């Protein structure tokens, strides 16, 4: 065991505050990491507030972790002290089911072990995340950060990035495809960058006229105001692929109507019942596809980092001092961030 | 114009009764057909009753038509007098959009012209279907019936058959795949035959214990009683593909839960809002696909007839005298038919 510092919530209403806790004693396949940066994902807020009723307190959030290797176990082959590395949303899985064998550990039949609020598969303890000075993670769930990437701006690639990259790749989005990106937050703005890098013609769907300028700045070729029925009607049957990053309930039907025959709408943010109801006819009459996608597997998480280095893609971030995390949460709830807060972990050490 | 005999409903409550009406004067690309058999589809009942609020009376239903060519227009290349032919759910489309060019006329951007209750693209008249002694149809929308097939039992292939065959092929169902077929009516029993012919391991999902014997007789390898929670739980995450033929609202979530990672659930019967609500998490957490499919295009409609001939597949039918059509509808509403009524059109001539 090694003592670690971090920020944790102790209950639904406490907010995040400094904590000291134990990191596990490294196992032979473990990489010990000193954390430099940690992105702040909306999921963190859900866990801190226990919105999904599954939070185990104290919870140390954070699953967009960038740091440097300080030590490696005897079985570790691919990392050495000093490497700049990343840890995303998961830190373990069964490693032997079909999904794991295919490098799709996020779909592990036994369930992936989440980076925080997960149950360690060996000792049953609850995992703690990246709002901390250090973390110990099995080699398989650690990725290399290419030198070319700014490490702070790379942090959100480990969740917001891979979550949008994976479905674009899985469904083979390619040059010339017409892609719609619904929502322009941390996920949406990454989706635009990836779709553009893949050669697609990209339209951002946003509810607000005020975001048009920003959408264009992000690289969108077109913007559709989704609250404007005439604009939505004009967009009917014209898209090959829709990347839906909206994390709250919304009407899918007007977006499905924007898809061509055989078009695909992928949900990456919505985890609740679909309301208003999905109209089955919107799928049947044009052979459309509605699908879901969850982050990405470890090989693809490495791939997206390499893709970002190759295509000079990074997340737009606002640096955050650890002690301001609760204020940041309040701003995020109002959508007041472009587009991701990243905690500078030096500010934890200074606490 | 040529006078035709048939059975039509005159309003929502009249039931079907004999009618004389005009068939169009054949155009150069038209095939004139004397009808021998016409399958009775549940859609016919919806139109007769105006369940969807779009019926134009009088309506002559019927879109599973088998007959013999009596004459061909000067531009007709592929048919000659005496050929045994079929006409399915559509008789025209724009023929120039991407879907039409791909042989997916059912997804025509201007909308396909339905075999009955459709609007003729040339003269604006309302189309009349196959409960009749003759029909005149453009060559492109006529298919050849292989000699090996029993013409009466082939009729339902033109709707119930192609509707289930098309998604199985589109999603590449193959030997060894685990396929679930939900519902065991006209569509479901054809789906089982096709999936078996493609080499899949087939499970029928039915609500009733009483159908187990019949399901096995149809060739199903396994039967799951969908109302039995323990059976549904045992089936979790084990299917590659689900063919959902249920034409009324039902809970999709327990079936989605039966799909493996990357599994696909295709709706072919449900055209209404999905209720109870679709749980988005059921798609996201396993990268599952929910899709729709509508009949099949003309090349594939020919393909399914040839496939049936090759694999010795036909629909299980009960022959029907034209005058008993209203009684047949009542029996269909109670699910009392194995599995498709087919009208022997000689009995119309005898009327």
Strands of chain A, total number? 17
Amino-to-carboxy terminus distance of chain A = 22 Å
The total domain count of chain A is 2
Question: What best-fitting shape of chain A do the alpha-carbon axes yield?
Answer: globular
Number of helices of chain A: 12
Superfamily at the CATH H level of the largest domain in chain A? Medium-chain alcohol dehydrogenases, catalytic domain
What is the CATH topology assignment of the largest domain in chain A?
Quinone Oxidoreductase, Chain A, domain 1
> Structural class of the secondary structure composition of chain A?
alpha/beta
CATH architecture of the largest domain in chain A: Alpha-Beta Complex
**Oligomeric form:** homodimer
- What is the largest interface, and how many residues per chain? A-B, 36 and 36 residues
Relative helix content of chain A: 10-25%
Give an overview of the whole structure:
The structure is a homodimer of 351-residue chains. By secondary structure, chain A is α/β, with parallel strands linked by helices. Chain A folds into two domains: 2-158 and 315-349, Alpha-Beta Complex (Quinone Oxidoreductase, Chain A, domain 1); 161-292, NAD(P)-binding Rossmann-like Domain (Rossmann fold), CATH 3.40.50.720. Chain A is built from twelve helices and 17 strands. Chains A and B meet through strand 14, helix 9 and strand 15 of A and strand 14, helix 9 and strand 15 of B.
């Amino acid at each position: 065991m090694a003592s670690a510092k971090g920020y944790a919530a102790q209950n639904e209403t406490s907010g995040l505050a400094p904590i000291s806790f134990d990191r596990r004693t490294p196992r032979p396949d473990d990489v010990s990491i000193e954390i430099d940066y940690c992105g702040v994902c909306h999921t963190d807020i859900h866990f801190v507030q226990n919105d999904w009723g599954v939070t185990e307190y104290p919870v140390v959030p954070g699953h967009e972790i960038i740091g440097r290797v300080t030590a490696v176990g005897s079985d570790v082959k691919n990392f050495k002290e000093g490497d700049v590395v990343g840890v995303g949303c998961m830190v373990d899985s069964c490693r032997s089911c079909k999904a794991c064998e295919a490098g799709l550990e996020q779909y592990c039949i036994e369930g992936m072990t989440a980076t925080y609020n997960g149950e360690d598969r060996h000792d049953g303890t609850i995992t703690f995340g990246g709002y901390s000075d250090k973390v110990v993670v099995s080699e398989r769930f650690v990725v290399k950060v290419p030198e070319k990437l700014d490490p702070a701006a790379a942090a959100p690639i480990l969740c917001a990035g891979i979550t949008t990259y994976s479905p674009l790749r899985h469904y083979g989005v390619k040059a010339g495809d017409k892609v719609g990106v619904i929502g322009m937050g941390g996920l949406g703005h990454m989706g635009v960058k990836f779709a553009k890098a893949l050669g697609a013609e990209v339209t951002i769907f946003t509810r607000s006229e005020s975001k048009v300028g920003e959408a264009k700045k992000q690289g969108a070729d077109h913007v559709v105001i989704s609250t404007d029925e005439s604009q939505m009607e004009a967009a009917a049957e014209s898209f090959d692929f829709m990347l839906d990053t909206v994390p709250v309930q919304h009407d899918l039907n007007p977006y499905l109507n924007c898809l061509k025959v055989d078009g695909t709408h992928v949900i990456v943010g919505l985890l609740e019942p679909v309301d208003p109801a999905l109209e089955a006819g919107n799928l049947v009459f044009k052979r459309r596809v509605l699908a879901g996608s969850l982050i990405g597997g470890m090989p693809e998480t490495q791939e997206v980092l390499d893709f970002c280095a190759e295509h000079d893609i990074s997340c737009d971030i606002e640096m955050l001092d650890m002690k301001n995390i609760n204020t940041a949460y309040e701003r995020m709830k109002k959508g007041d961030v472009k587009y991701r807060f990243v905690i500078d972990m030096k500010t934890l050490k200074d606490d």
